[in-house]
């Protein structure tokens, strides 16, 4: 797919405000906002509520900027994949040049304002996150290696670390473990999606694991990742951000996640096709709840701590 063919579809000039919002991947941004806020609220110390709000806003804008840059660069494959054909650029509502301008402008704004509002450690982490997602993942890893999701998952794992740094000005074991939780969660989450997206990634030439190594291998990888993820997730309970609430949630969720990975491993393609990939779709949906509830439990521990109820 050439740039010219994409540009032909993007000269309609009828972009609405919502189309520019869609460039920022608002559903992904919601996860960024939540995990960043948890990292900020769980950190030792405190900041003024306005500074806290503005810091999370800047992290959200930076995450949205990454999304816009991703859509700018991936416009050619977004036009091919059924899952992404409705995005603003392939659907012809926004031009690639506009997406690039939005992404670059918001990137600079979010980093500078976060540095001025909180500290430059947090701003530096945000800048690196944007660079990692837009350049390392989107421009390099995504089209080059089936490990694209494994390595590229780091980009989505930084928000709680940035939120933590916005308060403390540094990086600590707790923030690294929150990073690791999202980092190890990302591969089984996206590989479960790849299992029922069928030919989308192959048609677009994206070397997803399902394309390069087959679906059976992908199922093995999904199951294999549940074990280090469970160890890290449960281990987080014994740090300063954990406690009995988090431990209970982590044990239950990881038992279910490992069981779900085992169910996926046991299935073959004829069975999955026959029921419309019911198990894989359910596992993908549960993976979203899995991450939300882990960070929600960290937030609950932080909220109860001032009353002597959170933590150990």
From TrEMBL:
Chemical reaction(s) catalysed: heme b + (2E,6E)-farnesyl diphosphate + H2O = Fe(II)-heme o + diphosphate
Membrane protein topology class: Multi-pass membrane protein
Pathway given in the UniProt record: Porphyrin-containing compound metabolism; heme O biosynthesis; heme O from protoheme: step 1/1
Pfam families (alphabetical): UbiA (PF01040)
Database matches in InterPro entries: Protohaem_IX_farnesylTrfase (IPR006369), UbiA_prenyltransferase (IPR000537), UbiA_prenylTrfase_CS (IPR030470), UbiA_sf (IPR044878)
Transmembrane segments: 28-45, 51-73, 94-114, 120-141, 148-167, 173-196, 222-239, 245-262, 283-304
Keywords of the record: Cell membrane, Heme biosynthesis, Membrane, Transferase, Transmembrane, Transmembrane helix
PROSITE patterns: UBIA
Domain of life: Bacteria
CDD domains assigned to the protein according to its UniProt record, in alphabetical order: PT_UbiA_Cox10
Compartments where located: Cell membrane
GO CC terms in record: plasma membrane
GO biological process, one term: heme O biosynthetic process
GO molecular function, a single term: protoheme IX farnesyltransferase activity
UniProt-listed Enzyme Commission number(s): 2.5.1.141
Gene3D superfamilies per UniProt: UbiA prenyltransferase
Class of enzymatic activity (EC top level): transferase
Family affiliation: Belongs to the UbiA prenyltransferase family. Protoheme IX farnesyltransferase subfamily.
General remark: Carbon 2 of the heme B porphyrin ring is defined according to the Fischer nomenclature.
Role summary: Converts heme B (protoheme IX) to heme O by substitution of the vinyl group on carbon 2 of heme B porphyrin ring with a hydroxyethyl farnesyl side group.
Quaternary state and interactors: Interacts with CtaA.
Name the record gives this protein: Protoheme IX farnesyltransferase
Organism: Pseudooceanicola nitratireducens
Lineage, broadest ranks: Bacteria, Pseudomonadati, Pseudomonadota, Alphaproteobacteria, Rhodobacterales
Gene assigned in the entry: ctaB
């Amino acid at each position: 797919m050439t740039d010219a063919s994409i540009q032909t579809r993007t000269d309609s000039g009828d972009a609405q405000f919502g189309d520019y919002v869609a460039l920022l991947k608002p559903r992904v941004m919601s996860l960024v906002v939540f995990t960043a806020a948890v990292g900020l609220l769980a950190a030792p110390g405190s900041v003024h509520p306005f500074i806290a709000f503005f810091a999370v806003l800047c992290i959200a804008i930076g995450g949205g900027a990454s999304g816009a840059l991703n859509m700018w660069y991936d416009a050619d494959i977004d036009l091919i994949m059924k899952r992404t054909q409705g995005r603003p650029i392939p659907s012809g509502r926004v031009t690639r040049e506009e997406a690039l301008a939005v992404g670059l402008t918001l990137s600079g704004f979010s980093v500078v304002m976060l540095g001025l509002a909180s500290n430059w450690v947090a701003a530096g982490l945000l800048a690196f996150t944007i660079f990692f997602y837009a350049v390392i993942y989107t421009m390099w890893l995504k089209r080059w290696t089936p490990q694209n999701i494994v390595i590229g998952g780091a980009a989505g794992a930084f928000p709680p670390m940035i939120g933590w740094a916005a308060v403390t000005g540094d990086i600590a074991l707790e923030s690294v473990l929150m990073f690791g939780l999202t980092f190890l969660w990302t591969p089984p989450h996206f590989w479960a999606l790849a299992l029922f997206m069928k030919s989308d990634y192959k048609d677009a030439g994206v070397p997803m694991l399902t394309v390069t190594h087959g679906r059976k291998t992908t199922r093995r990888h999904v199951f294999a990742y549940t074990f280090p993820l469970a160890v890290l997730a449960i281990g987080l309970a014994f740090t300063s951000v954990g406690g009995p609430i988090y431990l209970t949630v982590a044990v239950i969720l990881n038992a279910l996640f490992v069981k779900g990975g085992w169910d996926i491993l046991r299935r073959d393609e004829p069975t999955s096709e026959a029921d419309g990939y019911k198990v894989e779709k359910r596992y993908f949906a549960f993976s979203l709840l899995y991450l939300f509830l882990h960070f929600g439990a960290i937030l609950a521990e932080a909220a109860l701590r001032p009353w002597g109820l959170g933590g150990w």
